[in-house]
Amino acid sequence: MLSVLLLNGPNLNLLGQREPDVYGRETLQDVVARLEKVMEEWNGRLEHCQSNHEGVLIDAIHRAKGVHDGIIINPGAFTHYSYAIRDAISAVELPTIEVHISNVHARESFRHHSVIAPVVIGQIVGLGIDGYEWALRSLANKIGKK
Predict the structure, then answer these.
(1) Where does the chain cross the membrane (predicted)?
(2) What CATH architecture does domain 3-143 belong to?
(3) 80 is in an annotated binding site
(4) Is the pLDDT of residue 102 over 70?
(5) pLDDT value at position 111?
(6) Which positions are catalytic?
């Protein structure tokens, strides 16, 4: 059975309200429900955690080792400077995919660099919330469980 941890960083609790022209009108609950539906089809398990606090996300990553097969993370603004999240992902040695709803490379220059990218198996950017489902399907294929 596939078990995946879905992590969402700061301000993603405001999906559907915050800059809908950039992030869309769908909510974080919509994202989670969509992935839960896929996991139900596969008889898998999805755990979700959203936090505006770096340490909460790090603790969730640490707890994932030995519990989950992989991680999908949208680190939000932590993408650009959180070496602590980067190191946590590296430490647990779980396949991880980084997701961004908007095309960060077409936005402000500070969004172009990810300190997380070197320790993940891939990134999905600019596909809206569809990117989360692509990440889940890609992660399942990489792990070999569905």
Answers:
(1) none
(2) 3-Layer(aba) Sandwich (3.40)
(3) yes
(4) yes
(5) 67
(6) 23, 100
